[in-house]
Amino acid sequence: TVVKNRNGLFVAMVSAFASEIYLGCNKDDYADYYDCRPEYLSSLWIPFDCRTSVPLRDYTKKQVIQEARELGIDLSSVLSCYRGTNCGSCAACVLIKEAT
Q1: Is 87 helix (H, G, I), strand (E, B) or coil?
Q2: Which pLDDT band holds residue 71 (cuts at 50, 70, 90)?
Q3: Is residue 60 exposed (0-12), middle (13-18) or buried (19+ Cβ within 10 Å)?
Q4: From CA 23, how far away is CA 36, in angstroms rounded?
Q5: Angle formed by the axes of helices 61-70 and 91-99, to 10°?
Q6: Across residues 15-31, what is the average pLDDT?
Q7: Interatomic CA distance for residues 55 and 82, integer angstroms
Q8: What's the predicted TM-score (pTM) here?
């Protein structure tokens, strides 16, 4: 599941079309994904003429889910699965399951 510099690649591609990008990185992502760490993300705007915002960076996945519920977001419509199917067994599905 680790794709080196995937957020950098994402920002590089999208910055051609947007002046601001919101990323969903959160506190639980820091250990496995260096490109989700605040020091990395804060430097992304430098090579691109684009502002990056990471509004969930101080939240755990559990807190993100709690906030979503409080906002009335239908979590059954959210897809984090790496296989695109809500398989229940990939790393993203397991993390969501553990957070609920």
Answers
A1: coil
A2: very high
A3: middle
A4: 9
A5: 60
A6: 87
A7: 22
A8: 0.75
Which whole number is the average pLDDT over 65-89? 88
Residue 96, CA distances (Å) to 1, 56, 77 in order: 15, 15, 13
Can you tell me which residue has the tokens 């009335």?
A: 72
Q: What is the CA radius of gyration of the chain?
A: 14
Upper half-sphere CA count for residue 45 (Cβ side, 13 Å): 14
Structure letter (DSSP) for residue 35? G
Strand 20-22 relative to strand 51-53: parallel, antiparallel, unpaired? Answer: parallel
Map tokens 């680790």 to a residue.
Answer: 2
Q: How many residues does the chain have?
A: 100
